Amino acid sequence: MSEMVPLQAVLSGRMPALPTEANGAGRRGCPLSDLRERLRRAGLRPTRQRLSLGWLLFGRGDRHLTAEMLYDEAMRAKVPVSLATVYNTLHQFTEAGLLRQLALDGSKAYFDTNPSEHHHFYLEEEGAVIDMPDCGITVDSLPEAPEGMEIAGVEVIVRLRRSRPAGRRTQG
Ligand SMILES: [Zn+2]
């Protein structure tokens, strides 16, 4: 990923010159117009708020965030949004297929900027989510789906905790 352009510069149209096809063969055009196009293709009107939050969400590669984490980033980037707007936008993006909501535990919803099927490590103590490497797991023995159903996908979450020092383990 290339370096992030400051959000304020993007939204005010003061984008620094980005490589175009003339001087950057094979490079994509302006990331903001990419984002606008991505929202439109997903059936969402590219409003200023969606663009601001989309910029924070999708500008840094694959990530896993809660609404609170994105809200904190928005505050730091001086994007004027409420937590409720962040929630709504995350759910709209999820319904449009741009994000995937992860079922980790009941208390906090995590959203994945990579909506394709993949597996996760969940660090319970830190509440952090990490993508599992592609070769990390093979699910080759699944029960048959009930009559009239088919398996649409398999998501594995492996919960991690810090290993305890040897010798201090208790039985059972
Ligand atoms: Zn992920």
UniProtKB/TrEMBL annotation:
InterPro entries for the chain: FUR, WH-like_DNA-bd_sf, WH_DNA-bd_sf
The organism's place on the tree of life at top rank: Bacteria
SUPFAM superfamilies: Winged helix' DNA-binding domain (SSF46785)
CDD domains tied to this protein: Fur_like
Annotated PANTHER family: FERRIC UPTAKE REGULATION PROTEIN (PTHR33202:SF7), ZINC UPTAKE REGULATION PROTEIN (PTHR33202)
Protein name: Fur family transcriptional regulator Irr
Gene behind this protein: irr
